Amino acid sequence: MRVTEIRAGTVFCDGAEVMTELVGDVEPGDELLVHAGVALVKL
Amino acid sequence: MKYSQEFRDAELGRALAAEILATVEPGRHYKVMEVCGGHTHAIYKYGIADLLPENVELVHGPGCPVCVIPMGRVDDGIAVALRPEVIFTCFGDMLRVPGGRGSLLDAKAEGADVRMVYSPLDALRLARENPEREIVFFAVGFETTAPSTALTLLRARAEGIRNFFVYCNHVTIVPPLRALLESPDLRLEGFIGPGHVCTVVGARPFEFLPSDYGKPVVISGFEPLDVLQSVHMVLRQLAEKRCVVENQYKRVVPYGGNPAALRVLGEVFELRPHFEWRGLGFISHSALALREEFADLDAEKRYQVPGVRVADPKACQCGEVLKGVIKPWECKVFGTACTPERPIGTCMVSSEGACAAYYNFGRFAREKVAV
Fold first, then answer.
1. Other C-beta atoms within 10 Å of B346: how many?
2. What ipTM, to 2 d.p.?
3. β-bridge partners, B220
4. Cβ within 8 Å, pair A35-B148
5. pLDDT for B1
6. Angle of helix B146-159 versus helix B259-268 axis, rounded to 10
7. For chain B, percent helix, then strand, then coil, each to nearest 5?
8. For chain B, which residues lie within 8 Å of any Cβ of chain A, measuring from their own Cβ?
C-alpha cells in the first residue's frame, strides 16, 4: 500500500490508518507491505 | 501496479514451466508442500498446477490461519460474544467458521453484537467510542498477524484503555511443520516457505527443515512467477542434491526478519504449553498467549469460557486436507454438503483454505494442460 497522508503523526494508506512502528519513519509516497493494519516492510 | 503485475507475465511463466520440465527426472514423483494458504490461493487462482509436469505434485500445508482454529475455540468465542456487555470483533473470515454450536454469524443472527473489523486497530477504535461496552478482538493468525495484535495491545496500554480485550488464538508455523514431518502419513521432498510469515521471523527458523529432516525449502512470494520460480528452485536443489534454505522473495523478506516485530512479539506474548489445531490435534508450544503483564487485557482471563474440546464432524476431512494427505475433492462432502455458502469444515471458509480455492477456481475436472 502507498502512504497517502500523515496527519498528526498518524499514517494513512488509502484512507486507512496503518501502524508503522515496525518500519521506522515513512513519508507520503512510500510503499509498504501492510498486514492487518501494521506495516511489516518498507518496499 | 508495482511489485505484482511484473510477476504475472505469461511468457515468463511458460519459460519457467519449460525449465521445470527440464529439471525433473522422468519416472520420479515429486511432492512439494506449499506451507501457506496464500500460496494455495495463488496456485489455483492462476492455474499454476496446470503448468507443472504430471510428476510434480503440490501438497497444501497447514498455513491457513482460519482453517486451523478448532471448533472449541469458536464455541468459546461465541460464549463471550453472547454476553450483553460485549461487542465482539473479528476478521470477516472468522464470522463463518463453524463451531460445535454454529458460527459467530449465527450468534449475530441470535442477537449477539458481533462486528467485522479489518484490523485490531478498528476494535480499539470501537473501545474508545463505546466506553460503556467491553470490546473483544478475536485474534487469529500466524506470526504475520500477531505483530498487529501486539502493537494494538501496547497502544491500549499506553492510552489507558480499560475496555479492550484480546481473545488470543495466534499460532506459530514451525511446530505444525515438525509434527507433519514426524507423521508417517506423508512423504514430502521439499517445501515452499511462507513469504509473509518470513517478513517477521525471517528465513532462519526454517533452517531445521534441511538440517534436521534433509528437506530443501524456498521462501516464496505470492505472485504466479514467484511460485513457479520457487518450485523450480526446490526441484533444482533436489536435482543437484543440495539441501538448504533459499530466499526467492528477497525483494520483501530479509533473511533475519524484522527485529522490531520480533521484539514486540516477545514483549507481549509467550508460548502456550500446547494448543489444539483443527484436524492436527494438540501440538506443543505452537501458539501464543498474552504475557502476565497483559492479563488485564486478556479475554480468556476476563470471562469464564467453557473451554470444551469439540470433535470435528465425522464427515469433515479438513484434518487430512490440512496435512496434505488427501486433496480437497477427495473429501466425502466437498462441493456437496460442504460449500463456501454452507461450510462444514474450515478449509471451505477462508479464501486461503485449500477447499475454497479448489471450489472457487473450478478445478473439479483437474485436467492437466500439456506443457
1. 31
2. 0.93
3. B194
4. yes
5. 56
6. 60
7. 40, 20, 40
8. 2-3, 91, 118-122, 141, 144-145, 147-149, 151-152, 155, 196, 199-200, 251-253, 258, 260-261, 264
